[in-house]
Amino acid sequence: MKIEHLFSVREMSKKDIFNTFSLASKIEQNPEKYSNSCKNKILAALFFESSTRTRLSFESAMLRLGGQILGFTSAKVSSAAKGESITDTIRMTNHYAHIAVIRHFMEGVGELAKEFATIPMISGGTGTQEHPTQALLDLYTIHKEFEDIEDLNIGIMGDLLYGRTIPSLLFALSKFENIKLHLISPPALRIRDNVDFRLKETNLNYSVVDNMKEVIDELDVLYVTRIQKERFPDPTDYERLKDVYNIKSSDIENAKDNLIIMHPLPRITEISYEIDALKQARYFDQAKNGVWVRMALILKFLGLDINE
Ligand code: CP
């Protein structure tokens, strides 16, 4: 049997995405029904970089499915600290678990997983490359809000250069119709050329702007990301750019009534805490939706989604 892995949303068709949402929605409406679906199955959470949401929501997802979890929370507490290669870690995990989620700083870890993993492996974030399950929960949140993912005007703002959620979200959105995108960032943090190249091969319609004031009155969704301190080669560049955006309630006074504000989190200073209490804030809902989407993905990649 061919083992399936997930390291890019580009590997999923629109039909795969909607099937995942359909199952996530069924789980969300009746979680009890799935509480034994992964009995006797083990999820390995291999986190070579820090995480709150991705690790805990995958672990919560597996526990809610009646499965068990094991893993490590940083490279420092695994044998990577002694010099073990990622390929050997993948080979070991084959014997210890039935499915794994892996967060790693090295781009291309997906290629190694495809070569060496004999269990399904799902990216929990790969360097600056992609964060496919984040994009899926983002789209699930948009789908729940607007009942479809079409004819929307979406602003994506922040560190578009280093944020790994950004390429995944853009590649996922490129599968849908009539999405008008505004990529909002300082010139130093525009999307990378290889992402731009791939987007130009799609029908995605996008403009590039410096300031959300230019487009805020048009948006249905404002998706904000933090400036990714840990990815900057030169710390002085980070210091120069870290406070470039800080959304306050006064900044969305001219927004459409149906605007929602999203963020993959963690948030630093780019969204003021005063926004949390406003009807537009959806970032904590996104984090919650991540559990349902990851439950659906675990079932799908374990081949347990048949007849669901
Ligand atoms: N959104 C997200 O990936 O958060 P964590 O880094 O906390 O997992």
Helix content, binned percent: 25-40%
Query: What structural class should be given to the helix and strand makeup?
Result: alpha/beta
- Report the oligomer: single chain
What's the number of helices?
9
Task: Describe the overall structure.
The protein has 308 residues and is an alpha/beta fold. Helix 2 (53-64) packs across helix 9 (283-301). A 5-stranded parallel β-sheet has the order 7-6-5-8-9, with no helix packed on it. The protein has helices at 14-29, 53-64, 86-96, 109-116, 132-146, 165-173, 193-200, 235-241, 283-301; strands at 42-47, 68-72, 99-104, 121-126, 153-157, 180-184, 205-209, 221-224, 260-262. It folds into 2 domains: 9-130 and 289-301, Rossmann fold (3-Layer(aba) Sandwich), CATH 3.40.50.1370; 132-287, Aspartate/ornithine carbamoyltransferase (Rossmann fold, 3-Layer(aba) Sandwich), CATH 3.40.50. The model has no long low-confidence stretch (mean pLDDT 96). It binds phosphoric acid mono(formamide)ester. Phosphoric acid mono(formamide)ester binds next to helix 2. Phosphoric acid mono(formamide)ester is lined by residues 51-54, 125, 131, 134, 264-266.
